[in-house]
Every structure is written in C-alpha cells, then in structure tokens.
C-alpha cells in the first residue's frame, strides 16, 4: 500500500532510482500490481510470442517472490476477481432507480395540479421541479 506523497522503500529496490512521477502499472507473477517494472525490481526484458501478438515480459524481478516459476511481470494491472460482476449489479440498481424516479415524476405533477389552488400553481410547480432536481430525478 502506498500513501500519497510517499515513495516505496524496499530492500529489493534500494539500489534503483525509481520515479513515482510516471506510472506504468505491471502485474507480477505473484498477483500484485506494481507502479512500474522498476518498483518490482525487474532487470531483464524477454519477449513471448503467442498466436495473436508478442507480449513483453520483464524478468529478474527482485521484489517478487514466486514459488511457481520465474519472477516475471507483464504490462497492465492485475485482474481483480469479482470486479465486473459488482459493476453490473451497480449498473442494474442505477437503472431501476432511474426508472422508478422517472415514473414518479408525472403522477406527482398531476396530483399537484389537482390539489393546489389556481393562484399558487405556478409557484408550487416551480418548487416541485426544484425539489425533483435536488434529489436527483430528471
């Protein structure tokens, strides 16, 4: 965990001059995301060719303790399990709330028009729409 304004201090990168001003996240073979390959302590570059493209792997990473094979990193953040499912649940909840809010707007206007005296209707409609905007309905 890195706090704002702090520079990571680890024994494995004490000889490196890593900068926090440029962030290029890498995913270590241990499942941890590092700010850059420098912060993972990587020293060598290797290339792996797959059927679709060429991947660049950095090896010789001193800060990664890996029991299964060599300590390497690949470019990009490590995938977080469950993140996509949580986003889809959030999206569904927002859609349902928006639908309910939109369905409640027209009946509230009708009720207001029928119950408020004629000389106060414009004032009441103005207040209603102000309150609807304040609580987030459109």
TrEMBL record:
Residues 6-62 form the Kazal-like domain. It holds the Pfam family Kazal_2. It comes from the Eukaryota. Its main location: membrane. The chain crosses the membrane at residues 86-114, 120-136. It is found in: Cell membrane. InterPro entries: Kazal_dom, Kazal_dom_sf, OATP. It is a multi-pass membrane protein. Gene3D superfamilies: 3.30.60.30. PANTHER family: ORGANIC ANION TRANSPORTER, SOLUTE CARRIER ORGANIC ANION TRANSPORTER FAMILY MEMBER 3A1. Coiled coil: none annotated. The lineage of its organism: Eukaryota, Metazoa, Chordata, Craniata, Vertebrata. Keywords: Cell membrane, Membrane, Transmembrane, Transmembrane helix. This is Solute carrier organic anion transporter member 3A1.
């Amino acid at each position: 965990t890195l706090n704002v304004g702090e520079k990571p201090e680890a024994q494995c990168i004490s000889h490196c001059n890593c900068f926090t001003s440029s962030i290029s996240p890498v995913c270590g073979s241990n499942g941890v995301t590092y700010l850059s390959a420098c912060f993972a302590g990587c020293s060598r570059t290797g290339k792996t060719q797959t059927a679709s493209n060429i991947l660049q792997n950095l090896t010789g990473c001193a800060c990664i303790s890996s029991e299964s094979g060599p300590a390497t990193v690949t470019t990009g953040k490590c995938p977080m399990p469950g993140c996509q499912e949580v986003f889809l649940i959030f999206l569904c909840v927002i859609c349902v709330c928006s639908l309910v809010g939109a369905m409640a707007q027209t009946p509230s206007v009708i009720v207001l028009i029928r119950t408020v005296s004629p000389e106060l209707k414009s004032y009441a409609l103005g207040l209603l729409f102000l309150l609807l905007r304040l609580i987030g309905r459109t």
